[in-house]
Structure formats: structure tokens, C-alpha cells
Design brief:
The chain is built from 7 helices and no strands. By secondary structure, it is mostly helical.
């Protein structure tokens, strides 16, 4: 009874189906269907243990154990506070290593007193020159030699007068 209520499916005319774009569409549908069947056959041919789906391998294989020598410095491990003495020893080792690393960094980044004095000496003259005006330069208001002996006062230029051309 349900079949009698459905309208018969209408199809396109054979002239329309013979056109190039319609043929390409039919071929593309056929290729897609074959690809889906091939993928389904490949998936069915693979076997998987129940409860363990393939999530990708996170295991790396190394030919030697040399990489593992420095992974854990003490050689003993404790998980979830199972062995508090081992965990305490590991924390102490880590803090010692961090302190050594920070001291090394400080030695590399620190500046000696002599170096700081030399830098200050060169900067003082530069800053004084920056904040002085041209009028102070020309009048000698800023004594650069007192601030820094390496910086000289700019030399005064002679003012040229108009020279009358000779006849």
C-alpha cells in the first residue's frame, strides 16, 4: 500500500543524458562509488584488537641506550610520593643544578666595576652634550673637558666678512 502512494520516479530524457556534461557527471559519480567501495574493502581487511583502536604510534625505537643515560640523574625514581626519600633527593639535585645554571648566567651577564666606570665616563659627556644648546656650545657654557676628557669643545669659526672684488 505504501508503494502505491509514492509517485513514480521520473528520469531525464535520453537526449539530455547524451550531452557531454551529463556524461561527465555520471562518470564522476561512478568513480566516486568505486573509490568508496575500495576504501570499505581496505578497512574491512584490517584487523584491530577490541578495545584498542589505532590512535597512532607514540613509541620511538632507538638503537642504543646512550640517550637514556642522562634522563634521570640519580637512577632511582618514585611516583606519586611512593618513596619520599627518593623524591626529596631528586628535588635537591634539581635545585643544585638550577643554582649552578643561574650563577653561570650571572657571571656571563655581569659587568665588572672597571667596565662600568669606563662606560659611565663615556656616557656622561654624551648626555651633557645632548642636553646643552648650541648657544652654550659657542659661548663655552658647557665645559666638556671637565665632564669627560675625551670630548673636546667645538672650535669657534671665524666670521667671514664681505670682500670687495678688485677692479
Amino acid at each position: 500500500m505504501a508503494d502505491s502512494l509514492q509517485a513514480p520516479k521520473k528520469s531525464l530524457s535520453k537526449n539530455l543524458m547524451a550531452m557531454k556534461f551529463m556524461k561527465r557527471k555520471v562518470e564522476a559519480d561512478h568513480r566516486r562509488q568505486l573509490e568508496e567501495e575500495r576504501q570499505r574493502a581496505i578497512e574491512e581487511s584490517h584487523w584491530v584488537l577490541e578495545g584498542q583502536e589505532d590512535k597512532g604510534s607514540c613509541i620511538e625505537f632507538e638503537p642504543s641506550y646512550v640517550k637514556c643515560d642522562d634522563l634521570y640523574p640519580s637512577g632511582r625514581m618514585s611516583f606519586k610520593n611512593f618513596n619520599p626519600a627518593v623524591e626529596k633527593m631528586f628535588k635537591e639535585m634539581v635545585t643544585k643544578k638550577d643554582m649552578a645554571r643561574s650563577e653561570e648566567w650571572e657571571r656571563e651577564e655581569s659587568v665588572s666595576d672597571e667596565e662600568m666606570a669606563r662606560r659611565y665616563e663615556t656616557i656622561v659627556g654624551t648626555v651633557a652634550k645632548k642636553f646643552s644648546t648650541k648657544r652654550k656650545w659657542s659661548s663655552g657654557g658647557v665645559n666638556f673637558e671637565a665632564v669627560s676628557p675625551s670630548i673636546k669643545e667645538p672650535a669657534k669659526k671665524k666670521k667671514r666678512e664681505f670682500m670687495k672684488p678688485t677692479d
